[in-house]
């Protein structure tokens, strides 16, 4: 049977000076450092046998996909299944303003962290990403496919692939900016998961999706 690899690439740092939980909001682009990160992940995959590049519809993912697709002469195909997870607090400042956990008005959104109650259920995220992964695997059979998307959908998909619970501590996610989570298939069967951080040299001082600063 043939071996096919589907790479799940997280987008680079976003220009977000107000540290908003931007979620699915349109218009959030890569920062200058995020563009440098995208170039690094493009270099990382330049010598790979990439047959297709598909991306979340959100601008930051499309911008990250461009330097990946370019060296291979590929068009970026938008896949709605790769969109960011839904979140009730989208558009708010996490930990600073309306989204504070200490505010009793928000407590109803934190009643079930296992689902989670504040946004799109983990299992629904896994289902849509896994569907996109298997479509990409079939289309790129015997070669490599790249899907550019977002941290949480990537992480819960990896947890599911490894047979681990989907509930987790967000601070312990192994899914850095412009990281590459690679799913290796033999035929239709998952054979292993690899992980790389081509842009790690740029992490110091970078801001992640929740407004926290990376070290």
From TrEMBL:
Gene3D superfamilies: Phosphoglycerate mutase-like. Signal peptide: none annotated. GO terms for molecular function: phosphatase activity. InterPro entries: His_Pase_superF_clade-1 (IPR013078), His_PPase_superfam (IPR029033), PGM_Phosphatase (IPR050275). GO terms for cellular component: cytoplasm. This is Histidine phosphatase family protein. It comes from Brachybacterium vulturis.
């Amino acid at each position: 049977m043939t071996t096919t690899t589907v790479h799940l690439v997280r987008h680079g740092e976003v220009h977000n000076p107000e540290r908003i939980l931007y979620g699915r909001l349109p218009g959030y682009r890569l920062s200058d450092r995020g563009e440098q990160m995208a170039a690094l992940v493009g270099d990382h995959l330049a010598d790979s046998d990439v047959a297709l590049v598909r991306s979340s519809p959100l601008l930051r993912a499309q911008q990250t996909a461009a330097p990946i697709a370019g060296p291979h002469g590929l068009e970026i195909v938008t896949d709605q299944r790769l969109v960011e997870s839904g979140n009730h607090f989208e558009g708010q400042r996490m930990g600073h303003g309306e989204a504070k956990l200490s505010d009793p008005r928000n407590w109803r959104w934190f009643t079930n962290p296992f689902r989670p109650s504040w946004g799109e259920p983990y299992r629904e995220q896994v289902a849509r990403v896994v569907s996109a992964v298997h479509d990409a695997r079939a289309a790129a059979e015997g070669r490599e496919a790249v899907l550019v998307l977002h941290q949480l959908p990537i992480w819960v998909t990896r947890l599911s692939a490894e047979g681990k619970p989907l509930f987790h501590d967000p601070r312990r996610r192994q899914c850095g900016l412009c990281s590459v989570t690679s799913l290796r298939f033999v035929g239709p069967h998952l054979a292993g998961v690899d992980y790389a951080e081509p842009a790690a040299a740029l992490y110091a001082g970078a801001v992640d999706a929740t407004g926290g600063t990376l070290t």
